[in-house]
Structure formats: structure tokens, C-alpha cells
Amino acid sequence: MDFEPTYTPEQEEFRQDVREWLAENVSPDIAHPPDSINITEEQYQLRRGLGRKLGEKGWLWATAPEEYGGGGLSLDHAVVIEEEVDSYGLTIPPYYDSGGRLGGASIMVWGTDEQKQTFLPPIFRGQVRTWQLLTEPEAGSDLANAKMSADRDGDEYVINGQKIYVGSSLGCDYMWTITCTDNEAPRHQNLGWFMIPADLPGITIQPMELLISGGESGAGSGVKNTVFFDNVRVPAFNLIGGENEGWKVATTHLELEHGTGGRIGRNWLVDHLFEYCRENQRNGQPLTKDPDVRDKLIDIYVEAEIARLFNLRNYWMRHSKAEITYEGPQASYWRKMSGLRMSQSILDILGPSALTFDPQWGAAEGHMEAHQRSAIVAIHPGGTADIQKLIMARRIGIGREVREKAGALA
User: Fold this and answer.
1) Which of 168, 268, 375, 406 is the Cys-Cys partner for 339 at CB 3.0 to 4.6 Å?
2) Domain limits for position 32
């Protein structure tokens, strides 16, 4: 059965334009290392430069309205752009940036017209990069327990507290974060979302050097940080959604983070693994000739293809404004658990060489070792595997009289 989408003549014509443009604008030095923490400053700047060029073309956030710096293009065009960028082993954007995928999308739903005009064009044109700051020492999966305070003082809020597990390396321009705006109000009615300039006085970024995860998508996203706020004064204008209305903004942000955002593209780890198994021998013949290895390679391919198709479906549903229920957490849960299953199969095939990036003994230039670590780490960010199961249950009505609705996306 063929699950691949079909393309219109218009899409294929547009695809040729995109291919020609990428061939002229993607530097050969932009290659992605196996472990995202090893990306150099030069590679990062090349990616940021490519992001700005894509933004100028309207291809960075192709479906976002032109008036806010997007491309104003159709879903058909956006799919082609994502696929062609993916052919270079890159994503949209070609660097870690929660601003466009999460913060920007949330501002589109909950921001005022003036806030949209102020914050969105720099994001959608690739001029700024944004970190998301969610987790705290007392607020992980239970995000509504956020304690970082934001106290109103005239036309400003004074923010104090800390956020942990914040990606990535190489800095950011804005911080998209949830705070507690009223210590006395009930849960879910006491929160606020802010877009905070990263260069404000009182912000300190401290790398969490013992918790480098590596292997994640996006340049430098494997590095995690603690971010401290010490009497940071933020304009009240930067509060999105209104005072004590942060949880409604969270429903949009988390809906996208939990899998509804959908990334189009292949799992390039599979290609690296297949290539390694074709080119390396065991008992005098290529690994791909071993029946047990072949069986496990098929399992790995199927796992990756199901994840890709889930993402493709969610990408289409989001941008075509189809009704969404359980699909986001379903895709997220599959990605998390299939990553673990794939890592075990890779270990079964390659043995100890999957556990080292040593040039002599490691497999596939370190890609397998990076995946062994990242597969374990990946079951936690963006809502744990158990959280995804809980959301799915609520969305299909298990244990509740009223089904939970998906977060607003438009």
C-alpha cells in the first residue's frame, strides 16, 4: 500500500523553483554533526543566515500571513518547502527556535494586533531566535505549578525566579516564558505568558553541563541551561493574552509542542544506519546480508515511517484547520517510544560500536552513539510519555463525562 501523498503540477513546478534556490543558497559547510552540541559557531551563523534568506523569500514560515512577515502561501507550497529543505538534512527553521513554531503561533492566536505587528515579523523573517522557558524546580509536567513570579509595577512587571532545562547553546534574542502573576488566585487562573528580550538586566544564563543531551533536532539544542531572573523589569506590553490568562495561551503552546505542530521529513538516522550496514562486514559479508540484521532494519524502517506519516498527517490537519483531538499526543507518544525501540534494535545490530563516537570503533561517524543517548532523553521533553497517554485518554473521553478539547490553533 502506498501512503505517500500525490502532488499537483503546480506543486512540482514550485518544487523546481525551491530546489534551484536552495542549491544556490545552502552552503556546503552547513552540515549537521551527529551530536547537536558539537555544532560550531560558524555553522550556527550559516544556519541563521539561511534562515534570514528564507524569511526574506517568505519561505521560513510559509503559511504565516504576509502582514506579519510570513509567506502567505498555501499548505501545498509549505509542504514542498519543508520536503526540499529536509533533503539537505535541515529543518524549518534550520536552527533551534521555539519562537516561530510555538511562541509565534501562540501570539497569532492570543496576541493583540499591536503585539502581532511588534513580535511576529522579526520571528517569521528569521531575524530573532527564541527560547522557550517552561520547566522549573517545582513545575515540570505539572506546568500550571509555575512559581516564577511576575509582579505588576506600573507599566512593567518585575520577574523573579528561575527556569531549568532550557535549550540551547549559542544564545537567543527572546525568551518565551510562563510565570505566576497572582499568588492568591486558583490554579490555571494565576498565570501569565511573556515575550522577554534576552538582553534585559537581571537575566543570567548558566549551562547545565552535566545534563547535555545531544542528538536533538536543531543546531545546538542539546545544551541545556538554567536561566535566573533577578528583578527583571519587563514592559506590560509583552504580556500575551492578558493578566492571569496564561493558561489559555498554554493550551495553544502545548498543543503544538505535544505533537500537533508536526515536522515533515525523513529520519536521517535510518539512512545513516542502512548505509553503514551496507558498507561494513561481519563474517566476511555485508551486515545487510545477515537475516537477523535485515529483520531488525525492517523494524527500524517501519518505526521511522510511521512517525513520519503521523507528523505529515498532523502538519496537514493543523494547516488545513481540520478538527484535531488526540492526534498530537498520539504522534508524540509514538515518536518517544519508537525511539527507544529503535535504539534497542540498533544496539542489537551493532553491539558496543553503537555506544561510542570513537573514530575507529564508533558506528556511522557517531550518529548511532548520539541516538543512543537522545532516545532516552527524548521521552521527557515536551510532556513525558505518560503525559501523552493521559492527554489522549482525555481527548477520546476515557474517565470523563466531557472530552477535553485540543488547544486553539487559529
Assistant:
1) 375
2) 9-124
Q: What are the residues whose beta carbons fall under 8 Å from the beta carbon of 71, sequence distance 6 or more?
A: 57, 58, 59, 60, 61, 62, 63, 64, 77, 78
Residue 202 lies in a domain: yes
DSSP H helical segments within 179-262, as ranges?
Answer: 246-255
Residues 49-83: pLDDT tens digits? 999 999 999 999 999 999 999 999 999 999 999 99
pLDDT tens digit string along 374-393? 898 888 888 889 999 999 99
CATH number of domain containing 71: 1.10.540.10
Show Cβ contacts of residue 149 under 8 Å, excluding neighbours closer than 6 positions.
Answer: 159, 160, 161, 179, 180, 181, 183
DSSP state of 199: T
Which parts of 26-93 fold into alpha helices (H)?
Answer: 41-57, 75-86
Q: CA-to-CA distance for 183 and 351, rounded, in angstroms?
A: 53
Residues 6 or more apart whose CB falls under 8 angstroms from that of 322 comprise 316
221 with 235, same domain? yes
